[in-house]
Amino acid sequence: MSASWTRLANGLLSVFAGVSAFILTLLGFLLLGRLDQQIVASLFIGLFALLLVRVATERPNSSHARAVAALIDRLLAVARGDLSSPAPPLVRKELPALASAVDGLFDQVRTSLDNFHALAMYDPVTTLPNRLHFRKEAERILAGRALDQQPALLFIDLDGFKEVNDRLGHAQGDQVLIMVANRLREVVRAESQAGSLNQPLLARLAGDEFTLLLPDSGREEAERIASQVLEALTEPFRSPCQTSHMGASIGVALCPAHGDDLTSLMKAADIAMYHAKESGRARACLYDPELARVSMERAALQGELGEAIAAGALELVYRPQLCLRSGAILAGEALVQWNRPGGPLLLDRLPAMVQDAALAQALGEWTLDAAVKACARWRAAGLDQPLSVRLPDCDIGRFDLAARLTSAFDGWGGDPWPLELELVQGQIAALSVGAHLQLAMLRESGVGIAIGGFGGGKANLPALVGFAADKVKLDPALLIDIDTSDRARIVAASLVQMVRALGSTTVAGPVERQEQLEVLRAIGCDAVQGFLRVEPLDEATFIAWVAGQDCAGSLARVS
């Protein structure tokens, strides 16, 4: 109502100003005859009209000025963090269009800030908290824990995701990561609803690394939940394009036993996770101070190993693979020996020891080249047994593996190549289509394919059924109690029969006791390698040893 009266008053004042100016001008021209008098009168009349117009315009501007002042105060409130209050009522009353524009601007600013916060604090693929968010929240949780609380940190690293990502492409790889995140959410949700978890913090750090902070769990609870995570991630990941098999290696660290801040906890959990990978993958490992010492030694050894490769300080040594029925030498297993100044070091766990990708590739290339040259020397010495060599993941998945071996064996004519490539069980499910094709091409050329570590960790039976292997090597852990435990013997016998039904040869080792050897022979195992604590032999000694077939037979028939 007041606005209407104000507009009416301003209108009447403007009309009065115009009428007054007209009357005074008319009187000036009628009453004044001289030109100079008319000019002076016109100046006074103009000034009077200007004064009236100024009064007419000043009235509405005073309301506008108050509205503008109110808007300025609102804008200054942004410095105090106020982005939610609407435009002041006076601005809405006097300048409604401007008030609407200001409200719209603040809406856009709030939306942009929300989007920026989401990008800064959450992973765009899985929508889980990212590294920055995890660190901020985890530090707050650890700082506020009670003295009787024992938080646990699970460091989860996917096994074989790189190969899956390479095989399916990054877009489908992201879909697999989303499925991983959803399975982890389900584990957390189920445990929370059961009352065993109190506000856990799940995050994706980067790539195929996830973390789960349990604010108050303790060792037993943390290990139980780690088992739940392993079970969830071992199930196949099915998509419209393809089914993928992965798994995970998990490191577990406890606070304050393994560290009382996030940095030390993450370091401990990371060391434990790498130990889980070294132990065969698809398992959880609790941190132990001894693991830290081993990790430091490994880091130092890796630095020296790179220099040793360049200096030619490596050589292949061999241990025989014996038939348990006839005692014949079926193959020679090649191991990399590093001739260090402090004594030789056997790299019998090559992929686990070398974590650096570039170093692993360099060592894999050296191993393959050395094995091919050894095959030529064996042939010249009259040996027809194949040479078995284990390569790291980076060499098995190389697109030019078949071409490299074809070039290396170019002079062999039509004879089968006397080479056997060993893959660990965890590598099979992660093989790309191209890697499968290359291995098939190599088999056609006579290269044998062996699977190592079968039965250890989470055995992937579907992947084994769909993979053509000439030999399957049992995990050494299965042999520890095979001569003293009925259950261990039954498990080993079942695996041997399964492998035989698939048309592959079963190899076991290392065998440390005569009783183990007898049990393996009794359950139908085909061959052993690394037996009765016999050390690997250098090439000259091995070739001479193979020439004495009676020696091999006598070792296999020890009773």
A few lines on this structure:
The chain is an alpha/beta fold and 559 residues long. The chain has three domains: 1-116, no CATH class; 131-287, Alpha-Beta Plaits (2-Layer Sandwich); 313-547, EAL domain (TIM Barrel), CATH 3.20.20.
Write structural notes for this entry.
- The chain is built from 21 helices and 16 strands.
- It has 559 residues and is an alpha/beta fold.
- The protein has three domains: 116 residues, no CATH class; 157 residues, Reverse transcriptase/Diguanylate cyclase domain (Alpha-Beta Plaits, 2-Layer Sandwich); 235 residues, EAL domain (TIM Barrel), CATH 3.20.20.450.
- The strands form three sheets. The protein has an eight-stranded mixed barrel, surrounded by seven helices. It has a five-stranded mixed sheet with strand order 2-3-1-6-7, sandwiched between helices. A two-stranded antiparallel ribbon has the order 4-5.
- The protein is elongated and about 135 Å long.
- The model has no long low-confidence stretch (mean pLDDT 81).
- Keywords: Membrane, Transmembrane, Transmembrane helix.
- This is EAL domain-containing protein.
- One of its GO terms (cellular component) is membrane.
- One of its GO terms (biological process) is signal transduction.
